[in-house]
Write a structure and sequence with these properties.
The protein is mostly beta strands. It has 2 helices and 11 strands. The chain is elongated, with a radius of gyration of 25 Å.
Length: 255
Amino acid sequence: MLVRILALVAAVAPFASAQSQITFSQPAAGASISAAEPLTVKFTSTGSGFTTYNLYLFAGGNAASAMAAVGTPIATAGQISTGASPAYKIDPTTGGTGTNAYFLQMTAQGPNGESTVVYSDRFTITGMSGTFPANVQNGLSTVTGTNGPTNPAAPGAAGSAAPAGEFATPYSMQTGLTKFAPMQQVPGTKITATNTSPLYPSTTVQIAKTWLPTPSQVTTLTQSNSISVSSQENTASPAPMPSNDMQKFLARWKD
């Protein structure tokens, strides 16, 4: 009996709206916080399916190239179920001042390797004595209101045919603890391209002559595929076993 198998590989639907199910409640949008006081972050997660999280304090604009992490992580491998981060001591020397200059970035992970990124609304931290790098200062000059960066498309979200949001920013231009890689391209069934130039410009490479510092990036999130693939079992009959003299001779030694 011939069995035909039709497999449909689609994006993971349960997590398509997960990013909207994790929301921050503290600090509130537009809040003013003193660097001298411990920072506690509160959030809610309703049916998101995520179990652990990493949490970072960020400053800058809404584009990946215009933001940067400030200080050390607020929490690593925290439990989503707690709904709150441990009290975090802000180092005032790690960032500058500015109205609504700061926001939070959470990378949430699920039990099967699912992950997503969620940004909070903006707030102000007073008592900071450091300075912002140039890209952060440039990003802050474009900020209006209290809305934080747009959350990237949730892993497994259907309809993400082209890179969008953070995934559209060239990898080499991204800063911060989390980087975003665009959806992997799927080879076509025919070769029709005549332009053989590289898809992306080449990058310069410098050979390390001393020990390099530990990378600051914590993780890379790759945009999930949104294509559908069908497959079918090969129904061709297998070739018969050889029946020549050598095969018969070798069969004598099977026992």
